[in-house]
């Protein structure tokens, strides 16, 4: 199995768990891509993506999916 195939088979929940990221009860967490005092990364399990709403984040404006994490 190729690495790209393994990445494609991962769910968002599995990818977050691998990195030790645990969303709160509203599916938000502190963004790992920038300094964050309050949770700014929203996790969308149905869409298998997440989005950081902070303008200070290099990922702002891009939806992140499990293979990209």
From TrEMBL:
A Pfam family the protein falls into: Zn_ribbon_DnaG
Source organism, top-level taxon: Bacteria
InterPro entries xrefs: DNA_primase_Znf_CHC2 (IPR036977), Znf_CHC2 (IPR002694)
Record-annotated Zinc finger CHC2-type domain positions: 3-64
Matching SUPFAM superfamilies: Zinc beta-ribbon (SSF57783)
Coiled-coil ranges from the UniProt annotation: none
Name of the protein described by the UniProt record: CHC2 zinc finger domain-containing protein
Organism of provenance: Chitinophaga pollutisoli
